[in-house]
Amino acid sequence: MLVVSGGSTSHAVVRGRTGESVVLLSGDLPDVLTDRSVAELLDLAAAVLTGEEMAMFRACLRALRRGEGLGQRRVEIGGAVLTVYYEG
């Protein structure tokens, strides 16, 4: 398992033993997704995600920043699905 975390936020990117990737976001969406926190998150993600995963993740982040998919459990962009887990 590979875990990368850091920056001024409490975000982390994880690659599990079976190859699945998980991105942990801390805070209220989309408010927590400032330009600075997104840049830091993308830096963390680049250490763990493949190029294809990064492209999909960027698209999902753009959608979340626009408020799309909030209140739902998943954001789908071009067939790629980002599952959102949160505490209510």
Can you describe this structure?
With 88 residues, the chain is α+β, with helices and mostly antiparallel strands. It contains two helices and five strands. The protein has helices at 35-46, 51-65, and strands at 2-5, 12-15, 21-24, 74-77, 80-83. The strands form two sheets. Strands 1-2-3 form a three-stranded antiparallel sheet, covered by helices on one side. Helix 1 (35-46) runs antiparallel to helix 2 (51-65). The chain is globular and about 30 Å long. The N and C termini lie far apart (28 Å).
Describe how the helices and strands are arranged.
Elements: E1 2-5, E2 12-15, E3 21-24, H1 35-46, H2 51-65, E4 74-77, E5 80-83
Antiparallel strand pairs: 1-2, 2-3, 4-5
Helix pairs in contact: 1-2
Mean pLDDT: 76
Structural class: alpha+beta
Strand order of the largest sheet: 1-2-3
Q: Give the topology string: H per helix, E per strand.
A: EEEHHEE
Rg from C-alpha positions?
12 Å
The proportion of strand residues reads: 15-25%
Shape: globular
Total strand count, please? 5
Count up the helices: 2
Helix fraction?
A: 25-40%
Stretches where pLDDT is under 50 for at least 5 consecutive residues are: none
Largest sheet composition: 3 strands, antiparallel
Task: Give the end-to-end Cα distance, rounded to a whole number of Å.
Answer: 28 Å
